[in-house]
Amino acid sequence: MRPMDYLTRALLALMLALLLPAAWAGVPNNRAEPAYAEEQTILQAQQDSRAPEPALDNAASGKAHIDRHYIGQYGAREGDVIIQRGGNLWRTWRNGWISSTSGILIILAIIGIALFYFVIGPFARPRESGRRILRYTDFERLIHWSTAISFLLLAFTGLIIFFGKVILMPWMGHGVFSGLAFISKYIHNIFGPIFIICSLIMFFTFIHRNVFTRVDRAWLRRGGGLATHEHVPAGFFNAGEKLWFWLGLTVLGLVMTFSGLILDFTNFNQSRYVIQVANYLHLAGATFYIMAAMGHIYIGTIGTPGTYEGMRHGTVDEEWARQHHELWYEQVKSGEAPMAPPPEPPRVPPRPRPGPAT
Ligand code: HEM
């Protein structure tokens, strides 16, 4: 053998001597603790996945099987759960039939409102009398607009979080969409509690005007004249507005408040199951709230000309009040309800008084 061959063989032998123990150490065996633990976890997970899930009213719900396995292993807090079996079901439902149903309902509401506008048409604009009546005080308008603006911010950012990945990301690209989703999430998280406070103030400001009376039953029976455009008497708020107050602001407001707070403050050790159920409720509530809000915005603007002025400036024309809220109009005329405050006299700066000649 040539000296070069000796050298090559010696180098190969050295390499083998170095590599073999390393390779041996890499082979999974019972003494390699992490590999053993993983294997046991997989076996446990397989076994758990065959066991029936405890019902939601069972205290073990969300903690048993795979979840319990990990809690037991790494700690007792929900934050220590690494794998949660229900998570995959939640993801497939949220991204599957729930998002499709929600999207279809919102699109149907938009089509329904458009059809209503083009087929039945809005109310005719009443002939202006030129006399104004006070409808909302500055405070009432401030609280309405604060609630409305925070609602719109929540609705737009919520829809971006919900549908953005499917609708926006394909044409925006990952980079732009991730920035938008990030901003949306923070706006949503911050405006949630602001919306709750505004809704509460709004509730107590307007509750006394939203008590149902016999007049409302008659208004509902005739559909408020929305389809026929006939004149139907109503008080300060009609039955449709009262329904929006009780079913929208109050019932849906409560659903969004409780589910939203559970989603917003995950630091109270609530289990992932609770958060997932809150997410379903939040999505259902958001869908109905957004649909109803679109109807409210349509009727309050182009559907009933003259209505928006009340919320914009605080006053409405007398003729509008007579046509749409006749009973309230009569109260105003009889002095029971306030008229518009007289316009403020223009501010003329005081003329400088001629002083003594110097
Ligand atoms: C009433 C108006 C509201 C609407 C229309 C609305 C809508 C939505 C929608 C569509 C989502 C997306 C859910 C998903 O993608 O699975 C969402 C998420 C969320 N909402 Fe709301 N929401 C409203 C009010 C609130 C309130 C009042 C709070 C809190 C107090 C809140 C807190 C949250 C949180 C924390 C999330 C999860 C955001 C994230 O992914 O990190 N929401 N909302």
Commentary on this structure:
This protein is mainly α. Among the domains are: 40-50 and 64-83, no CATH class; 88-137 and 210-333, Fumarate Reductase Cytochrome B subunit, CATH 1.20.950.20. Helices cover 67% and strands 2% of the residues. The protein has a two-stranded antiparallel ribbon. Helix 4 packs parallel to helix 9 and helix 11 crosses helix 12. The longest helix is centred in the middle third of the chain and has 38 residues, at 169-206. The radius of gyration is 33 Å and the shape is elongated. Residues 22-34 have low confidence and may be disordered. Bound molecules: protoporphyrin IX containing FE. Protoporphyrin IX containing FE (HEM) binds at residues 94, 151, 154-155, 158-159, 161-162, 185, 188-189, 192-193, 195-196, 256-257, 260-261, 263-264, 279, 282-283, 286, 289-290.
Gist of the model:
The chain is mainly alpha-helical. It is 67% helix and 2% strand. The chain contains twelve helices and two strands.
Q: What's the pLDDT, averaged over the residues?
A: 85
Flag low-confidence runs: 22-34
Estimate the global geometry from the Cα principal axes: elongated
Radius of gyration (CA) equals: 33 Å
Fill in the CATH topology of the domain at 88-137 and 210-333.
Fumarate Reductase Cytochrome B subunit
**Proportion in β-strands:** under 5%
CATH level-4 homologous superfamily of the domain at 88-137 and 210-333: Transmembrane di-heme cytochromes, Chain C
Give the SSE order as H and E letters. Answer: HHHHEHHHHHHEHH
* Major sheet size, sense and barrel closure: 2 strands, antiparallel
Q: Using DSSP, what is the number of strands?
A: 2
Chemical compounds bound to the protein: protoporphyrin IX containing FE
Task: Give the distance, in angstroms, between the N- and C-terminal Cα atoms.
Answer: 129 Å
The CATH class name of the domain at 88-137 and 210-333 reads: Mainly Alpha
Q: Which secondary-structure class do the elements indicate?
A: mainly alpha
Which sequence of strands runs across the widest sheet?
1-2
Number of contiguous helices = 12
* CATH architecture call of the domain at 88-137 and 210-333: Up-down Bundle
**Percent helix range:** 55-70%
